[in-house]
Q: What sequence folds into this?
């Protein structure tokens, strides 16, 4: 799944579960649940070679940049507009935890000899990834993102 919807799910968990001891690990686990949802991403049906060259790594970086921007936006909104420091911190940590599995697996893209953690996380992820054709695969992620947005805005405007 793309990084931005993963981030949104983490932020939604952080916005609705105030205990970081529960919310942060749950955000991490929900990453793998997200990958189980049929989806399309830049790595769908590609070879290792295709993942390393051309437009795909750039698209992944753009998606990462968008995810970080969205995470920072809602964190700062919780901090400055809502004025709730613990909520902001919780959402930030959940946003990070929600994309951590992909960050841990990232070395697989850049090196031929990745570390053991990357290998294990990458194996788990490639087993869970449920690919879908681009239209349906993006639609599921749009729906998840919209749902997460509603949860976040509902929590932040109470
Ligand atoms: Zn993933």
A:
């Amino acid at each position: 799944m793309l990084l931005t919807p993963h981030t949104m799910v983490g932020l939604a968990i952080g916005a609705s579960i105030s205990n970081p001891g529960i919310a942060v690990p749950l955000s991490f686990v929900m990453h793998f649940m997200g990958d189980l949802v049929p989806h399309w991403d830049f790595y769908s049906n590609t070879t290792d070679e295709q993942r390393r060259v051309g437009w795909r790594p750039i698209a992944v970086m753009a998606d990462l940049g968008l995810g970080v921007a969205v995470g920072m936006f809602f964190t700062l909104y919780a901090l400055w507009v809502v004025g709730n420091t613990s909520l902001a911190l919780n959402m930030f940590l959940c946003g990070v935890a929600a994309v951590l599995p992909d960050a841990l697996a990232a070395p697989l893209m850049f090196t031929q000899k990745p570390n053991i953690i990357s290998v294990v996380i990458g194996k788990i992820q490639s087993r869970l990834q449920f690919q879908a054709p681009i239209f349906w695969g993006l639609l599921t992620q749009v729906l998840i993102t919209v749902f997460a947005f509603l949860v976040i805005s509902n929590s932040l405007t109470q």
User: Anything to note?
Assistant: The mean pLDDT is 94.
